[in-house]
Structures are given as C-alpha cells and as structure tokens.
Amino acid sequence: MTILVTGGAGFIGANFIHDWLADSNERIVNLDKLTYAGNLQSLASVAEDSRYRFVKGDIGDRALATRIFAEEKPRAVINFAAESHVDRSIHGPGEFVQTNVVGTFSLLEAARGYWLELPEAERSAFRFLHVSTDEVYGSLAAADPAFTETKAFEPNSPYSASKAASDHFVRAWHHTFGLPVLTTNCSNNYGPYQFPEKLIPLMIHNAVTGKPLPIYGDGKNVRDWLYVRDHCAAIRAVLAKGVVGETYNVGGKNEMTNLEVVHAICAILDELKPASHGYSQLITYVKDRPGHDRRYAIDPAKIERDIDWRPAETFASGIRKTVEWYLANEDWVCGVTSGEYSRWLDKNYKERVSA
Description:
355 residues, alpha/beta, Rossmann fold, 7-stranded parallel β-sheet, 3-stranded mixed β-sheet
C-alpha cells in the first residue's frame, strides 16, 4: 500500500513523513516542487529508505500527477502543497492563486481520473485529504466563540482567500463528482523544520544571532498554537477514521498573543543559551501588516468527539522542544537562512519603521 503526499518537503509535510515512516511500513511518495520553503535537507534521514520516494514537481502539472497515480496506485492523497505565508501573499498574491487554487483544482482532477478507474473495493477505500487553515474563517473579536466547522468563511488576506477557494473546490468535487474527500482546518503550527519567516523560528533565529525581534503593531494579535507533531497525529487519525465529505477543525486550545509567545521563547533562551543581555531586550515593535487579523481560535470538539484525537503537547512542553531543536540544528537553520531568505527579510522588515 502507498500514500501520496504533496508538499512533503515543507514544514508540516516533512514532519508528517518522518512520523509516518516511524509508525508505519506503508510506502509514501512525496511530490514537491521545492520552492524556497521546501527543503530536502529536512528529509535527509529518510532519503534512502526503501519505503520513501521523492518526485520533484508541481501539483499543477496534471500530466505528472496522472503519471504518479498510474505508477504508484496510492490508496490516499494528503495535500499539504500550498503557498502559506500571509506577508508573501500581500507582496505577491498571484503565486498563491496559482498554487493554492489552480494547483488544487489540477490535483483534484488527476485524483478523480485515477479514482474513477479503480476497482470498486479500492474506489470505496480511496481518500483525498486536504490540509487547510483556520485563517479561512476570518478574524474574531476578543469575546467571540472559537471557530467551529460551520463558521462561514470570511478570509481577509490573499493567502486565506486562496485557501478558502481551495477548500470550496475540494468540497465541490465531493458533492458534484463523489470524490471521497476529507478536509482539516488547523490552527498555527510550530516545531522542527519550520522555515524561519514564521513567528516562532524567526524569533529564535534572530535572538541567538543578536538581531531585533520584530513584532507587528502592539503584539496583541491572538493565535491558537499547536505543536506540529500533534497536527500530524490528527491528520493520520482523520485519514483512518474521518467521515467522507466532512471537515475537522484541529487546534491546541492554546490561545496566546504574539507578545506572550515571544516572551516565552526569550525565557527559554535565557535559561538554555544565556547572553550578556536578556533576550526580551531585543523586542522591537514595527508597523503592522495590512489587514492583520486580530484573533483566531479553534473549537476542536468535533475531532475530539468523533475521531478521539487530542494534542499530546501543551504549549509549554512544545515550545521548549522547539527551541531545543533549533539550538541543536544550527546547520539546518544556516542552510535555509541565506540568499532569497535574506532578501525577503530586507523587503518585509527593514522597510518597516518602528511603531
């Protein structure tokens, strides 16, 4: 048996592949076009595993996807492939539309063509699991209830709009064509192998290199945080137990402001890698990004009740593991914090004056 993972060289996908191969003997094929955030170094330890195959390519290349389906005959697809950074979507929304919307459509069509030709038993067992985000639901006020699966979509950034569109396509391919789909909408992930443009790895990297810790606006934007390995466990559980056509919200019940997250990182670094100054002294407030959503919060009651999934890590345990991983893997960090990444930091932060 084989599963096809798209975007497996990215942050969540790479963690999923590591966990899958650690817990299963089933083969896994990784289709990834290796954009700036896709890093095969994250999968170096499994590169020679006979259960693993990497294919460089775009989910928007339908001919390639069709060939992979024919060669590998996967029982399931898990679609991680996406452009995922809000700031980049503001600077260049076209790439997000192409990958997240057009790419998902193309992958759905390749999967549908393959699925229709399967024998009845295999057709019934096949699954297309689409991994999405809580950002499709929009922004919450402080007193609003957390997002449930029935919350109307109100995306506010080019990124979240492109992911909302992809979610709609996945739903439509089930209701119109019968493709057996599952969708997960998850809160903010953190953990090993995350590209350091995102808040937590950026703060760790800047802190240990003595650079400012840039925080948008007043730092009081709230996110629900989930350790990435818990997210991977949720995806495996939904793949195994999820009801076809259903959506499952995945969250950690760890609502924190960005400022609280950064102070937590600084406190751990003060303990593990003491400096002549307290790391929190590096905190710098910068001009907020356009349309910055104030609060996200996930209600995971459905996945807890129907799938019997709950996170294993608290934020305190997960953030400590994360800081420890980045301190122990400086070679990986150095490998991704050069070239285009440096140009990106200049574009996104140096042009912002302090708030």
